[in-house]
User: Which sequence fits this backbone?
């Protein structure tokens, strides 16, 4: 996410890598570029047009391509909207109003919902996207009928110091090599598809000037029905602490830990099981807007 950095136009190499990574999606997709006061937001859409809407928010440093394994299970019954977050790696173009504070991010998401014609939707976020999803549920609970948090960061526990130390080369020497080494460490030797690793490495270089917009832990007093999916082998934070704190502070939260997943492998490690957990939490008849 950027604060006052100028609009970044992705290079041809990044666009090529993006398309190669998106080609991993096993379902037909539509591509939308939604205009707003912040710029244009790239949204990848799949699933039945009449299905309940489900909005996906990826983690920091990744793009909508990260959902390549989970797209098919979710798209069987839901209209899926995978959003490239404004200002970071991806094909959303931040060319307008600055993103300085969490409130700006929430205004941007308001615009995404309006642009998609959604009055209500389920919202699923991974990692930093989980922080953003939980923040948005507190901001506009009437628009979020269900909330799914995949190993969210900075919501219920802080980062492990060892994780931050291992992540340091991503900022000092960004690129595909440092990205691969970091993901191999965190996932225990099971990083995502090479196309995704390459895209993340290029994104780390091209969007190096991007500033992450973050803030305090989200206010959960207005939270909506929530499914929390910690990664049992996460090296990012203590998943047991995440689950325990969520159960203490988030009324009625459902916790379904994926024991074999790590933080970064969660979206692709066991997509059938993760899809089963998510779809079992999202009633098929949820009300939603029509795109």
Assistant:
């Amino acid at each position: 996410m950027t604060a006052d950095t100028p609009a970044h136009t992705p290079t041809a190499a990044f666009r090529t890598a993006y398309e190669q990574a998106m080609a991993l999606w096993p379902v037909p997709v539509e591509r939308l570029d939604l205009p707003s006061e912040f710029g244009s937001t790239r949204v990848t859409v799949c699933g039945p047009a009449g299905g309940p809407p489900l909005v996906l928010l990826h983690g920091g440093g990744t793009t909508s391509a990260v959902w390549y394994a989970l797209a098919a299970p979710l798209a069987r019954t839901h209209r899926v909207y995978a959003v490239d977050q404004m200002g970071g790696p991806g094909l959303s173009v931040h060319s307008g109003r600055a993103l300085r504070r969490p409130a700006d991010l929430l205004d941007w998401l308001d615009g995404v919902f309006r642009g998609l014609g959604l009055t209500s939707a389920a919202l699923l976020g991974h990692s930093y996207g989980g922080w953003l999803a939980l923040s948005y549920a507190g901001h506009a609970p009437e628009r979020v009928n269900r909330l799914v948090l995949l190993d969210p960061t900075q919501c219920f526990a802080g980062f492990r110091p060892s994780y931050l130390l291992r992540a340091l080369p991503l900022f000092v020497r960004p690129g595909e090599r440092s990205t691969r080494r970091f993901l191999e460490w965190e996932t225990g030797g099971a990083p995502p598809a090479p196309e995704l690793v390459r895209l993340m490495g290029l994104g780390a270089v091209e969007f190096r000037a991007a500033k992450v917009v973050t803030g305090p832990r989200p206010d959960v007093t207005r939270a909506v029905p929530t499914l929390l999916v910690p990664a049992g082998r996460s090296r990012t934070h203590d998943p047991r602490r995440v689950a325990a704190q969520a159960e203490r502070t988030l009324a009625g939260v459902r916790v379904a830990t994926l024991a074999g997943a790590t933080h970064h492998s969660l979206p692709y490690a066991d997509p059938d099981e993760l899809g089963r957990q998510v779809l079992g939490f999202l009633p098929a008849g949820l009300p939603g807007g029509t795109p």
In short: DSSP finds ten helices and nine strands in the chain. Confidence is low (pLDDT under 50) at residues 1-5, 285-291.
